[in-house]
Amino acid sequence: MRTSLWLLASMACDAAPDVRDSANDTDATLFPEACSYTPMPDLDPAEGVVQVELRASAFAWDPGTGVPLRAGLAFNESVPGPVLEATLGDRVLVHFTNDTAIDMSLHWHGLRVTPEMDGIQQMMGDPVSPGESFDYEFTLVDGGFYWFHTHMDTATTIEAGLYAPIIVHVPGEVAPDCDLPVVLDDVLLDQDTLQLAPPDTDMMQLMGRLGTVLMANGRRDREVQWTAGQTTLLRLVNASNARYWDIRLEEHTFTVVGSDGGFLAEPYTTDHVVLAPGERTMVVVQATGTPGSTYRLMNRRFQLHEEGGDMIEYDPMGEGENPVMSFVYDDATVTGAGWTQPMPDVPTWTGAVANLGHRWLLEEDMMGGTVTIDGESFPNVPLVEVMANMDTTFEVENDSEMHHPFHIHGNRFQVVDVGGVPPAQAQGWKDTFDIPPRTTVTIVSKLDNPGEWMYHCHILEHADEGMAGMMMVGGM
Q1: What does the pLDDT look like over 213-244, one tens digit per residue?
Q2: Does the predicted model carry a pTM greater than 0.90?
């Protein structure tokens, strides 16, 4: 299935009249060298309503190698797609058109939308077919940083470029000198042609697809202009198929102020952050560098397998650190605006609650090449049924030798225990979290968004191979 889709996308990109063998024409506008971004135009001037046009099409985009990817796909001819920007409480209407040669559905990752807008029902029976349109409509009930992406054959379509960030501002949020979304991704290229490598090897399906080019906002050579004294809010999202990112900024410190679902009550400082596929974090960085100097955002190798697993795990980026993007200081110095922490909306659990909704078991068979949840592969994984509007504990046991990022649609939760130990740092709302090898992670949710929701590993090859299931959150 993935091979045929890859070929379809490649042929569509070769044939489409609007595909240009050049760098992304809208790139400089959406993500300029200045520390800023340009959101999608709002077509409705009314307050409290955001209405945008979104189009998926074949598009030969350049990841910074100088060679456009002929099998590339894009939203509004940009990779990543343009930022969807709104405010908590807004009604959002997205007029989506599928101008590709493949069926599609869109998932608003982390947003608590209604089930019919989540993209899963389309994926399972009523997709947006080539040439068709669909209106996604929902009200924003959570502030923070999110992203949207395709949810059919994700290992291929997200790799090809179909993803974009979402910023939902909250009351009391005071803008810093720079508010910058940074979408982290990697692509696996054939080293001879510098084109997307076919994604269907058995080993890749089991291990995940690790790329040969690391990108920030769609390019490996991204530069951002800075002025000493500025305060920057970096909104980071990991859009990679399988790569965990362990990032730091040379000679600078991160103050972590937010997670998947909004701002933290207790920010903390660190010299690096780790993001599993699908995860987000918001960090504040004070521009304390030397005017005229350049500092690189670096990614350190993160081993997906438990100790000793490097015998079977190969990362084409090598064992050390690699640069991702650069922050280039001009010669000036300013007095920055600083950072004002918005009022957080955070969970209050300090541990598991008595009501246990379900205990998931994640397994993989290295010899058989399969990944399973509760002993089965989707769509044969047994349905999980829980009551709505009730504080509920879930446990996820990873009985394998590999890290798995776990994503639950439709409801948010808090991680309260990892391998018998509470998290070291303050935890905000989450929708995606890492489960280390041979470890059980405990989460708690209010389950206040009823409906039938998907959950899955966010290593995209694993999700496509069936490491997924459905959960029915019933009414009370």
Answers
A1: 999 999 999 999 999 999 999 999 999 999 99
A2: yes
Residue 423 belongs to a domain with what CATH number? 2.60.40.420
Q: What amino acid occupies position 261?
A: G
Residues 420 and 455 reside in one and the same domain: yes
Domain of 79, in residue numbers: 2-172
C-alpha to C-alpha distance for 21 and 379, rounded to whole angstroms: 39
Would you state the structure tokens that stand for residue 264, as one six-digit string?
């933290």
CA atoms within 13 A on the CB side of 264: 21
- The answer on 19 and 167 residing in a single domain is yes
Note whether 412 and 142 are within 8 A (CB).
yes
Torsion (CA) 264, 270, 276, 280 in degrees, nearest 10: 40
Residue 342 domain flag? no
What is the maximum alpha-carbon separation in the chain?
Answer: 61
Residues 44 and 93 in one domain: yes
3-state secondary structure at position 254: strand
CA–CA dist 125, 331 (Å, integer): 57
Residue pLDDT, tens place only, 124-150: 778 999 999 999 999 999 999 999 999
DSSP strand pairing (392-398 vs 356-365): parallel
Residue 338 within a domain = no
Check: CB of residue 238 under 8 Å from CB of residue 277: yes
Written as one string, the DSSP assignment of 6-60 is HHHHHHHHHH-TT--SSS-TTHHHHS-SBS---BPPPS--STTEEEEEEEEEE--
